[in-house]
Each structure stands twice: as C-alpha cells, then as structure tokens.
Design goal:
Largest sheet: 8 strands, mixed
Distance between the termini: 23 Å
Cofactor: FAD
Radius of gyration: 24 Å
CATH class of the largest domain: Alpha Beta
Number of domains: 3
Family: Belongs to the flavin monoamine oxidase family.
Strand content: 15-25%
Keywords: FAD, Flavoprotein, Oxidoreductase
Bound molecules: flavin-adenine dinucleotide
Shape: globular
GO biological process, one term: chromatin remodeling
CATH topology of the largest domain: FAD/NAD(P)-binding domain
Structural class: alpha/beta
InterPro entries: Amino_oxidase (IPR002937), FAD/NAD-bd_sf (IPR036188), Flavin_amine_oxidase (IPR001613), Flavin_monoamine_oxidase (IPR050281)
Length: 495
C-alpha cells in the first residue's frame, strides 16, 4: 500500500490549492473527495449557454489583492468586472425614486460605518440589531431630525418647518424602509442581525478583500477544476465519490478510511471538511481525539445560511431589464414568518435581493433572475417543495413589478446548502452573540491549529481569521497549510 506524503480531504478551493502547491513541490499527494465533482461550495449551474454560480460567484476585492484573481490569470480564465447598472429598490408601495433609494442607502452605510469595531467594546451580549435599531441609531438620524411624531429623536426637538403631518408619516415610512433595508445585511452575514456580535462588527473590514468584484468567465467551479487538473499534471491522485469516515494516527503514520472501508496511508493529512460537517461527525472520527480547544471551537463557531433561487425565463418580461443590475424588494407584510407560512407569505415578509442577468453589465446576458435568500426566508422555505417555491416567487415577482401576465420560468433551481450533508450551511459567519460563552475571531485561529505534532492540518474558509467565509479565505488557507506541511515533511526527512 503506497504511503502518500499528504492526503488531502476535500476538493473544494482550499483542497485544490493545497494539492497544487504540494504536488508542484514534488510531494506525493492523494485528494479524497466525497462528491462526484470537484469544487465543493464552488458550484456552477449549467443549462445550455446559461451558467450561473449557485455557490460562490464573486472574486471580492478583485483590484484589492484577492488571490483568486492571480489564480484565474495563471490558468488563462478571463474575469469580468460588471459595468455600472442601476440598483432599484421596491418599497411596500412600489418602486422608490432614485433619490429615496439613495438616501436609504446613505443612511444604512453611515450606520454601518458608525458600528465598525465600536469602542469602548460593547458587552459580548450586545447584538448588531440592538445598535442598528436602537432609538439613537445613526440609521434613523435623517428620519429623526425631521419627524416630531417619531420616538427616535426624543432628545433633539425637530425642526418645526418640517413637522407637517405629511412629513411625519413619510418619515415613519422611511424608518420602516430603513429597518427593512438593513435586513439585507443578513444576506452576506448569513445570520440574523440579532445574532451578530456588535463587539466584533467590522472586525474583518480592514483585512478582507473588498471594493471591486469580478466574476470568472464560465463560473467558479471550472476554475477550481483547472487548479485540480494542474495538480494532477504534477502527479497528484484525485479520487471522487470517496467520503472519509475516519482519520487515525498509528505508529507515526496516518490511516484514512472511507465509507466503503478502503484504507489510505499518509505521512500527513490536510483536512478541509467544512465546519458545518465537522460539527456533525462523531468524535471518534479523529483518533486520538482532537484537542479540547479545537473541539470547543468546532462546537461554538457558527455556520450561516444563504441560499440562491434561480429562475430562467424564455424572455426578460420585467421592467428595466436592460438597465437594472439588481432589485431589492422590501417587505410588504409585517406578519411574522412561522412554520405555517406559505411561500408567498414568506416572500412578502422578507427583504430579498434579486440579481438581473438580463442586464448587459456582464458578458452573455440571459433572461435570468437570481435571488439571494437570507437565513429567515431560506429556512422557512425549506419546508416547502422547490416547485411550490418557484411558482410562488414567480407570482410574487409579477405582483411587485406590476405585470399582469408573463411567461412562467422555463427552468429553475433552489439551492439547499443548509441540509447538504457535505456542506451543512453556506459559510462561517462573523462572531455571534452566544449563550455558550463569548465567541470571537480567535475561534477561526483555533480552527486553523494543526494537531498530532503537525501531522494533521486544517484548511478551509473556517480556518482563516482574516478572510473567513470567502474564496479568498479558502485559497489563503490551502496555501498556508500546504507550505506548513511542506516544511514539516522537509524537517521530517532531515531527521
Ligand atoms: C451560496 C454561497 C455564495 C457564496 N458566495 C461567495 C462569493 O461570491 N465570493 C466568495 O469569495 N465566497 C463566496 N462563498 C463562500 C465560498 O464558496 C467558500 O468560502 C469556499 O468555496 C469554501 O471552500 P472550502 O475549500 O473551504 O470548502 P468547500 O468548497 O466546501 O470544500 C470542502 C470539500 O470537502 C468535501 N467533503 C466534505 N466532507 C467530506 C468527507 N467526509 N470526505 C471527503 N470529502 C468531504 C466537500 O464535498 C467539499 O468538496 C459563497 C458560498 C455560498 C454557499
């Protein structure tokens, strides 16, 4: 039985990068991947010419140093920065004017800046929601100064020249719209604002890659495939459909067993199993057991929810199809989402962001709408059949766009990363307010620490304190662990 220098568990971004790096150094590498495809949370939905990333889609911080850009360039994959396009906001009563939309966005952005790493640090139990929606929140500053009937501005009497009843009610509507728009932050966070820790809000903002976004041509999954192919060119072996069920250290060698009982041996292992999956594995999976602090970090670090709903139409029937890059739908209903809510009730009560692929802001436009579902609607929609969800969303769109008749979607797709046994969620979230002691970004550092004297390493987005939750985090972690293992193997051979 061959003994590999390194066995890599998982062929997502982190595993692919680690495999390429180590194999290019002449190390013998075996990659074991449970799915029948590579890419993991890089997953491109394809139908004819329509290709849509239903996992990761953007190279965030494209001009700001994201390493995924250099990987695309190295592999000859074109990348596209979207041309500017309108971002339209639909309020409960219809399309907002651009000045209304701009002022809502400006207020939200000012509030976000105000809550970047607040100092002095708020108590660990304070949530981002408590600050954003508090009575003195900068989110409502512009609404409050003009609204005497509002309870937002008790310490600062309003300017009487703006205190007509009409102005008061429109400012209340602004406040409701601001709260609804702030809920859109739950999409990238992967969790409700009530769960996000205020103390650590914005912790990543100075280090993560942000600013410009670009999309790799042909989708993210194909780019991972190219990285894996490079590793195979350097003699790495890749086994798909191979789910690892146990990892054991025996006599200075690591034995990895898959679900069929097949055994593989390596001097080192890099585990890229997603955090959500690690949480579900029996503790006996690793023997000897992982360090207690690692186990605690696995238990306490949060994995968020983000799903995508894709509707492909025979033609683009919605307004502003040629000019709008995205539509944000603020809720029309204040009814709380419950276990008995219908899909339509869920959509009506949620803040939804829909990307419009018909707009030629990227090459190859198509009559396609892609909607991001944050935790609350995503989990509630899970209780319904995808076909029912698609039909309800189509009718929701018709009513919000004020269109009476339109063709139904010809194809559709609803992701389910949350129950996918090989993902168990979208990505890790920023630090949370937790009943199990204070969580902090150090959790991600803890998850990156090697075990078993350096023979067992961990990579993956969850292991990158600075870039968690992103392709950049997965790439950086794969490179980090490959370099560490390479050094370890050199020292081991030198004795
Ligand atoms: C809906 C969505 C949208 C996103 N959007 C973006 C975005 O626009 N930009 C961005 O930067 N990031 C985005 N992300 C995050 C990004 O996709 C991830 O951070 C990144 O792909 C994670 O890579 P990874 O290697 O850490 O994990 P994964 O890609 O999950 O790879 C882990 C691999 O391990 C395999 N595996 C699991 N268990 C086993 C086992 N027991 N044995 C063998 N193999 C196993 C899995 O099948 C998987 O292939 C998004 C994620 C989602 C879900």
């Amino acid at each position: 039985m061959p003994v590999f220098d390194t066995i890599i568990i998982g062929a997502g971004w982190s595993g692919a990068v680690a495999a390429k790096h180590l194999s290019s150094k002449g190390r013998s590498v075996l990659v074991l991947e449970a799915r029948d495809r590579v890419g993991g949370r890089a997953d491109t939905w394809k139908d004819g010419n329509v290709k849509v990333d239903v996992g990761c889609s953007w190279i965030h911080g494209y001009k700001e140093g994201n390493p995924a850009r250099s990987i695309a360039e190295e592999h000859g994959v074109a990348t596209h920065l979207p041309k500017p396009a309108d971002g339209l906001i639909y309020g409960p009563d219809g399309l907002l004017s651009s000045s209304q939309a701009n002022s809502l966005r400006a207020a939200l952005s000012a509030a976000q800046s105000a809550f970047q790493l607040p100092y002095p640090p708020p108590p660990p139990t304070a949530s981002l929601a408590s600050a954003l929606f508090g009575s003195d929140s900068p989110l409502f500053a512009s609404a409050a100064t003009a609204d005497p009937s509002s309870d937002l501005n008790q310490t600062s009497p309003a300017d009487p020249t703006t205190s007509s009843p009409a102005s008061g009610s429109s400012k209340s509507a602004d406040k409701a719209n601001l709260v609804s728009l702030a809920r859109s932050l739950e999409v990238p966070l992967g969790l409700k604002l009530e769960k996000a820790s205020l103390r650590w809000t914005g912790w990543e903002s100075l280090s993560n890659f942000a600013g410009s976004d670009a999309a790799p041509e042909g989708g993210y999954e194909a780019l991972v495939r190219k990285v894996i192919t490079k590793a195979v060119d350097h003699k790495a072996e890749v086994l798909l459909g191979t789910e690892v069920t146990s990892v054991k250290l025996q006599d200075d060698m690591i034995t990895v067993t898959d679900r069929t009982g097949e055994i593989y041996r390596g001097k080192t292992v890099i585990c890229t199993i997603p955090l959500g999956v690690l949480k579900t594995l029996p503790s006996s999976t690793f023997s000897p057991a992982l360090p207690a602090r690692t186990q605690e970090a696995i238990k306490g670090t949060h994995v968020g929810v983000l799903e995508k709903l894709l509707l492909v139409y025979p033609k683009a029937w919605w307004p502003k199809a040629e000019t709008a890059g995205s539509f944000t739908f603020l809720p029309t209903s204040t009814q709380a989402i419950s276990d008995t809510s219908t899909p339509r009730e869920i959509f009506d009560a949620s803040t939804l962001i829909t990307a419009n692929f018909a707009c030629p802001s990227l090459p190859d436009p198509s009559p396609t709408l892609l909607t991001y579902l944050s935790e609350t609607p995503a989990l509630a929609l899970l209780k319904h059949e995808p076909a029912e969800v698609v039909e309800a969303f189509h009718h929701f769109l018709m009513s919000r766009f004020g269109v009476e008749d339109s063709p139904p979607p010809s194809r559709s797709h609803l992701t389910n990363w949350y129950t996918d046994p090989l993902a168990r969620g979208a990505t890790t979230t920023p630090s949370i307010v937790s009943e199990h002691g204070e969580r902090s970004p150090m959790d991600f550092k803890e998850l990156s620490r090697p075990a078993w004297g350096g023979k067992l390493g961990f990579a993956g987005e969850a292991t990158e304190m600075e870039h968690r939750g992103s392709v950049a985090g997965a790439v950086v972690s794969g490179q980090r662990e490959a370099e560490r293992v390479d050094r370890y193997l050199t020292m081991r051979s030198e004795g």
